Prior knowledge:
Blueprint: H1 3-17, E1 29-35, E2 40-44, H2 57-67, E3 73-80, H3 90-99, E4 104-109, E5 114-118, H4 119-122
Parallel strand pairs: 3-4
Antiparallel strand pairs: 1-2, 1-3, 4-5
The structure holds tetrahydrodeoxyuridine.
The site of tetrahydrodeoxyuridine has 13 residues, from helix 2.
Amino acid sequence: MNASVKEALIRAAIDVRENSYAPYSGFRVGAALLTLNGCIFTGCNVENVAYGLTVCAEQNAICKAISEGDNEFLAMAIAADTNEPVMPCGACRQIMGEFNPELDLVLVNLKGKIIESSLSILLPSLFKMD
Ligand code: THU
């Protein structure tokens, strides 16, 4: 991923975080997903008074891409206001793995700290049925 695309992906994740609906946890998350077509799909977390119905930012971005017919995922940036760059939860890792077990990940906080990783590092040996 070239530097300007990476920058755009990070900016999109930070910007969409502003739309987060997180009245229960107060923890706002933004995600931006880059596809092979060069499109960026964004998502924020959406909480619910029945807590278990909460949708994570990453899942939201993935569902938006899939429902628009775009399912070739290259990279995802995830942003939150944490001390260290935020890590995706286990459920989100599994959902990412459905589409690209080697998805590039750009994990950021609002202080400008960035960790670049891969889903293959954060979720090795993922579940398969074959
Ligand atoms: N959350 C995400 O959006 N992504 C993750 O990977 C972990 C957690 C959200 C869910 C909930 O709204 C808030 O962060 C606190 O768990």
